[in-house]
Design a protein that fits this description.
- The chain is α+β, with helices and mostly antiparallel strands.
- Helix content is about 65%, strand content about 15%.
- The protein has a five-stranded mixed beta sheet with strand order 2-4-5-7-6. It has a two-stranded antiparallel ribbon with strand order 1-3.
- Helix 2 runs antiparallel to helix 3, helix 5 packs antiparallel against helix 6 and helix 7 packs parallel to helix 8.
């Protein structure tokens, strides 16, 4: 805080002191002989002004020091409790401390209400998804009575609905990831096999060839969310790869990490759009040609990859290929990740 700013802030106190001095001097002038008391009166005024200036300077020093504390902490992006604790002798900081405690209590109350509302929505969504899956299972049974060609078309649409219903459940859980993450060891071959199974109907309907070269490797992470990420990438590959195309799933290891790479020979991604495909709701030129694209699948895939400390990268050449790569780092501490995202 600059001296000019401090003087403006304390102008009421300064004007009050000046007013008191004027009143005292007027009283002395009215009750005593000016000739005999002027020098004493002037001495008293200077002495009072000196004392007041010293007190004001000391107060300015303490206030400016507190301002420096707060400025330094805010520039470093740290919490303000330390500055508050060091400066509780100032009335303004005491008021700030009370305000912070009040805001924290109010925030906790609001957060609890919001959390309850989200949990209720999640419960309702889970129930709806379960009911829809039952209906889809009935439709699947009925479709088996239809002629082959009609059954194939209906089966494809049923699989699409099942996939989207499952994705809706994952999206609901993604907003509660701090409560829905569980660390466990699982095998890379098993998780890739499950992701392929979830998208098998889509690959078969377009006669897309799968080339899987994944070695066996044990990963510590959340199997459910890794399955979601892989399934979302494979679903994208099935959408944007032409009939008779090829999707390769490869795994390799080095001293830093284990990598899963999914490459298709589909339409590819425009270079200008490559940096935005993980943005929320972004569909790009390919998505605009596909009326079913929402731009949310890859957004949540990247979001959960970041939560799990998994590096998700993409590279592509238009009309050549698109490759997604997941990097599972060997030295990442899953427990610290889980704790850092606990609310």
């Amino acid at each position: 805080m600059r001296l000019k700013e401090y003087v403006i802030r304390e102008k009421e106190l300064i004007f009050g002191f000046i007013g008191c001095m004027i009143v005292v001097n007027l009283i002395f002038f009215a009750s005593l002989k000016v000739e005999s008391t002027f020098s004493e009166l002037l001495y008293m005024d200077l002495l009072c002004l000196l004392v007041f200036s010293l007190c004001l300077s000391w107060h300015y020093y303490k206030v400016a020091k507190v301002y420096r504390y707060f400025d330094e902490l805010m520039k470093k992006g740290r919490k303000l409790e330390w500055a508050v604790g060091k400066s509780m002798n100032l009335a303004e900081v005491q008021l700030l401390d009370k305000a912070m405690h009040y805001e924290k209590a109010y925030y906790e109350k609001e957060k609890a209400a919001y959390k309850e509302s989200l949990n209720n929505l999640m419960d309702y969504t889970t129930q709806i998804v379960h009911d829809i899956k039952v209906n889809l299972a009935v439709c699947e049974m009925i479709s088996k009575r239809l002629p082959y060609e009609e059954r194939e078309k209906l089966s494809y649409e049923i699989e699409q609905m099942k996939f989207r219903v499952t994705q809706m459940l994952y999206v609901t859980r993604a907003n509660h990831y701090n409560e829905d993450i569980r660390a466990e060891y699982f095998n890379t071959q098993d998780i890739v096999r499950k992701a392929i199974k979830e998208n098998a109907e889509f690959f078969m309907s377009k006669n897309i060839e799968l080339d899987v070269q994944v070695s066996s490797y044990e990963i510590l992470s959340d199997q459910k969310w890794i399955l979601y990420i892989l399934s979302q990438i494979l679903n994208n590959s099935s959408k944007y790869t032409a009939k008779g195309g090829l999707v390769k799933i490869e795994g390799h290891e080095d001293e830093k990490a284990y990598y899963l790479r999914i490459t298709d020979n589909g339409v590819g991604i425009v270079k200008e759009e490559l940096g935005r495909i993980f943005d929320k709701g972004y569909t790009g030129s390919n998505g605009r040609l596909n009326t079913k694209a929402t731009g949310m699948g890859l957004y949540y895939a990247k979001r959960m990859a970041d939560v799990l400390n998994i590096e998700l990268q993409v590279e592509s050449e238009r009309n050549e290929y698109t490759a997604f790569q997941l990097a599972f780092y060997k030295h990442s501490d899953y427990i610290s990740i889980q704790e850092s995202h606990t609310v």
